[in-house]
Amino acid sequence: MRIQGELIPIVLFTMVPITMIGVPIARAIARRIEHGVRGGSPALPNDVGDRLERMEQAIDAIAVEVERIAEGQRFASKLLAARDEVGRSKSALARSPD
Questions:
Q1: Same domain for 55 and 9
Q2: How far apart are CA 64 and CA 61, in angstroms?
């Protein structure tokens, strides 16, 4: 099989940009893999850790308050349902001819 003459420059002009783009990308991936195995994640500064700790405490406090609100709503719904049942039973007693 004979290669056509026009194919050689086409291959050349496509492989050069692919190589110029692909080699740095491959090196960057290799560095990332190498540093990931050795070092892990970089350490956070102290102030960031402190801020994250305060945020965690604030979120926990908010979660507790939301739970208290939900419990209050459940209690109020239960009282309203009980009051409605009592009202129905009293009206049923008032209607029955004895």
A1: no
A2: 5
